[in-house]
Amino acid sequence: MCKHEHKNCPRCGEGFECKVGDVTNCQCYGIELSVEEEAFITKQYTDCLCRSCLQQLKSRYTLFVEQKDRYSNR
Q: Which Pfam families does the record associate with it (predicted)?
């Protein structure tokens, strides 16, 4: 039996359905996170995030790394 849960995103408060028992139909399916991106997000949040927040944090991590690299090369 598939497990589906109604959750609220801990970042934005938006409601969504988490389909941990049917991941290929979950709202987060298809968002690929590197090990570093996943660590960046799980350091801040311990529960599932909505698709929008996952995409925003993925982008934010990319910007963080780019800025870090830019300043460390000076």
A: Cys_rich_CWC (PF14375)
